[in-house]
Amino acid sequence: MDKALAVQSVRSGRQLSSTLGTSRAYHSNMGHARLAHSHSGFNSGTPFDYEAFYQQELEAKRKDRSYRYFNNINRLAKDFPCAHMAAPEDKRVTVWCSNDYLGMSKNPHVLQKMHETLDTYGAGAGGTRNISGHNQHAVKLEETLARLHRKEAALVFSSCYVANDATLATLGSKLPGCVILSDSSNHASMIQGIRHSGARKMIFRHNDLVDLEAKLASLPLHVPKIIAFESVYSMCGSVGPIKQICDLADKYGAMTFLDEVHAVGLYGPHGAGVAEHLDYETHAKGITTEKTIMDRVDIITGTLGKAYGCVGGYIAGSAKMVDTIRSLAPGFIFTTSLPPATMAGAQVSVEYQMSHNGDRRLQQLHTRATKAALQAIGIPIIPNPSHIIPVLVGNAELAKRASDILLNDWGVYVQAINYPTVAVGEERLRITPTPGHVNEYRQHLVTALDAVWTELGIRRTEGWAAQGGFLGVGQDHKGNEPLWTDAQLGLEVLAPEGSIGLNHSGYSFEMEHMEVARAVPAQ
C-alpha cells in the first residue's frame, strides 16, 4: 500500500509539474529527503534568528527611503473625492491620487446591482471557477469584456497583476523556445510573469522602436515572440506607440501583449482604451468592416479596479488563446472566483461606460485644467499626453515630507512615489483628477502645492530648466499633446482671452464643465 501511494504521489507530482510549470511534488520529496538526512547527525549550530533578519530588512528599507507608509484614508461614497482619516469624526481630506479615475465606485447603477446580487447570491463565490465558482455573473462579465475589445473571448482574474503574471508565465513557458520582449518601464506584474515563465527575455528601451526592431531582427522568424508593453504607463503618463509596435510584430512574426490597465474606461468612444482611441471615429460609428489597431493587438489586459471602480482583472483575445490560459494558468485555476456581487457590479460599470462618455470627458477637462494651473506657477509636471499628472520632486525625503504636509496641514492627500516604483532621483507626487475634482478642489490643490514647494524649497520648473531639464521637465514638450483632441471632447465654445479658468486650449473650463455634465443622463 505504501509503495502504491508513493507511486501515485510521484505521478500526481508529474501532472502538477505539467500544469504549473514547476515540480512541487519533486521539491516536496527532495525536502523530505534533506530532512531525513539532517536527522542522521546532531546539529550543533545556532538556530536562525528570523526576527533579526526581518528587522535588518526593514532597517535597510528605511535607510534608503523606500519603506512604505500607509495612510489610513477612508473614501466616502456619497462625497467622493472626499474621505476621512482613521475615524469618521476625523478631519475630511480630498483624495488626489486615487485610481478610481471616474468615480465609478460610487455610481448608483453599480451600487444598486451589487446590493441586489449580494442579497440574492451571498458574499462569496464558494470556490474556484472549476469547482462551484463559475456562474452567470462571470459569463456575462466576460462576454461584455470581449465585446468591449472586439475580441472572441475574455477571462476574468482576481486582479490584473494576476492576469499579467499568469498569462505571460503560461505562454512563455509553453510556447517552444519563446522569447519575450519587454518594455523597460513595464509594470511589476509583467516583469514577474516573464520571470516565472523561464523564457528568454529581451528588454528594450522605453517606447524605443529602433531598439525594439533591432532586437526583433536578431531573432529567427520561426521563433515564438511576445512583445509586452503598456498603453499608458502609470508613473510617468507616457503612451506606448501601439500602431508602430503592431507593425513590427507583423513584420517579425511576434504576438502583441498590451496592458491597458490605466486606459480602459478612460479612452476611446466606448472606454476600451488607447488602442480603441487611436481609431476613434471608426469605433464611434460602430464600423466593423475595417480592421482597427485594437483588432490587431493579440492580447489585451485590463482591470476592473481602476476606472471601473470595482476589483479584478482580465485578458481578452482569441478564443483558443483564452481557453489555453483558462486550462493551463495556475493563477487562474487555483484561486477562488471573484464574488458574484463584484462581477455583477463590474459588468454594469463596463456597460455604463460603453454607453456614456461624459465621465471620461469631464475627467479629461479636469486634467487639462489642473495641468495648466500647476504649470502656471512653476510646479514641475513631467509632460505626457495622458490623464496622469506626475509632479517631479527628485528626492525621496522631500517627496515624503511634501506628501505629509499636504495631508496634515492642507487636507490634500497625494501619495509620494519613491524607489523602487520609480528610480532613485526621480521621486514624485502622482496626481489623478477625477470628474469630481471641481474648480473649488483644484484651486485649493494649487494653493497647497505652491505653499509646500516654497516651504520645502523644492525645485520648480525653471530650476530644472536651468540645469538642462530632466524627464522632460524644463524641456520641449513637443509630442505630448493630449490624446483626447478638442474635437473629440466636443469643445466648441471659446472664452474671451484672459477669462478665469482658462486652460491651454483657451476655453472656459467652467462653461465646458457644465456643458459636458449636461450630456450625462441623470442617475
UniProtKB/TrEMBL annotation:
Keywords: Acyltransferase, Heme biosynthesis, Mitochondrion, Pyridoxal phosphate, Transferase. It is found in: Mitochondrion matrix. The lineage of its organism: Eukaryota, Fungi, Dikarya, Ascomycota, Pezizomycotina. Belongs to the class-II pyridoxal-phosphate-dependent aminotransferase family. It comes from the Eukaryota. Transmembrane segments: none annotated. NCBIfam families: 5aminolev_synth. It catalyses: succinyl-CoA + glycine + H(+) = 5-aminolevulinate + CO2 + CoA. One of its GO terms (molecular function) is 5-aminolevulinate synthase activity. Coiled coil: none annotated. Catalyzes the synthesis of 5-aminolevulinate (ALA) from succinyl-CoA and glycine, the first and rate-limiting step in heme biosynthesis. Residues 93-449 form the Aminotransferase class I/classII large domain. It holds the Pfam family Aminotran_1_2. One of its GO terms (cellular component) is mitochondrial matrix. The keyword Iron does not apply. GO terms for biological process: protoporphyrinogen IX biosynthetic process. This is 5-aminolevulinate synthase. The keyword Iron-sulfur does not apply. It comes from Aspergillus parasiticus (strain ATCC 56775 / NRRL 5862 / SRRC 143 / SU-1).
